[in-house]
Amino acid sequence: MNQKRKAIPSMVKDPMLIQRRREQIIEAAVELFISKGFHKTTTREISQSSGFSIGTLYEYIESKEDVLYLVCDDIHRKMEERLREIIVEEATTVHMLRSAISGFMRVIDEMQDRVLLIYQEIKSLPKEQMTYVLQKEQEITGYFEEILRRGMEDGSLHIDEKSIFLMAHNIVVLGEMWTFRRWALQKKYTLEQYTEIQTSLILRELIP
Amino acid sequence: MNQKRKAIPSMVKDPMLIQRRREQIIEAAVELFISKGFHKTTTREISQSSGFSIGTLYEYIESKEDVLYLVCDDIHRKMEERLREIIVEEATTVHMLRSAISGFMRVIDEMQDRVLLIYQEIKSLPKEQMTYVLQKEQEITGYFEEILRRGMEDGSLHIDEKSIFLMAHNIVVLGEMWTFRRWALQKKYTLEQYTEIQTSLILRELIP
DNA sequence: ATTTACTGAGTAACCGCTCAGTCAGGGTAT
DNA sequence: ATACCCTGACTGAGCGGTTACTCAGTAAAT
Hints:
The structure is a homodimer. Chain A has 10 helices and no strands. The first copy, chain A, is mainly α and about 210 residues long. The first copy, chain A, has 2 domains: about 10-60, Orthogonal Bundle (Arc Repressor Mutant, subunit A), CATH 1.10.10; about 70-205, Tetracycline Repressor, domain 2. Chain A is elongated, with a radius of gyration of 19 Å. The first copy, chain A, starts with 14 loop residues before the first helix and ends with a helix. Chains A and B meet through helix 7, helix 8, helix 9 and helix 10 of A and helix 7, helix 8, helix 9 and helix 10 of B. Chain A binds a DNA duplex (30 and 30 nucleotides) through helix 3.
């Protein structure tokens, strides 16, 4: 079920160096992909912004798509890290859900360019790597599934087993739309207003 | 406010012929863009699938991006057409909203590849044309804004002016996510199940 | 004879990726 | 201490291939 991420081969021996150089690559590539898109960014640009030559770039990756994969994986990794900081125990499951939602919205807002990047460029990944990235996206909704299930079990949330999965996806999408509909939403609402209205929508369904 | 769509210049004189050929171009290009993506589709492929040579293709457009623009515009046009069929008067505003939502879901489902195409390739459009396409997307949510406002005014829907805009966007996004999250949703739910859960989510917020 | 639509080989530019070669650091034989 | 070689990271000109777009020419209709 749970597929391990494909390790990208490298010509370089020193694992620490690989990690350091790949961090450079990711840092340079995210910025370029955000501002120009994956297809319009050249490998030459990536290597230059990383601070070394194309030759060296290809010592650490095998193809341009590998860079996109590294970038997507890094974004998800950071996202999950922030989520784990935000999802903490609270007095009641309802309070926990509330704070998880508003925390999630803040994370989305902080990382909006990166969230958007994944939405827009995921399709350019080779099939296997795309599957892995989508799985990571599923893991993120998993955090909300867990809270919902707990609320169902302790009786504080009004939801049936069949709807949990969809409701968790709804929470994630209602968060992420803050980025991919920002051309409309961010003109009309502050993040706080947005969070409040969306939270009320979700909770009104869950609290009878 | 309302920006007219930029007319794409053509070398050909006969306006009827322009229309006919552009329909051919759109029909061929949609299929190619859906299966290969915009960037991986070549202009040669588009012209061949359209049934004429590259030279001729460039008599009807000025750049490859123009084709993407034609395609996006056509999809929105067809979407709006279907929406107008679906949004009809009903006994009450609540009934009207109900049937509009379920009708919208059916349209999304029918056009899912095309809806997804717009989501994924819109960013490849030149700025001006992108603005126009986003405006069209706003027009679609406008249909739901109208219903919501009417419900607010006749007292049948519980919503305030400030939330109407966001609620309309929510309806559209909760519909469109059926396509861009289909890797998760369409494995677990039928369109009918999906529609029912999402409708209940929206209506529970609106009906006190 | 002129206009109009159409053709497709050609062009200039670009891009992902490679590979022959450089160089610094360190081990080793003398 | 010196000379020599080896290893591993790095370099960037260049290769092979592709692509968006053009234009000189054809054919048919008026």
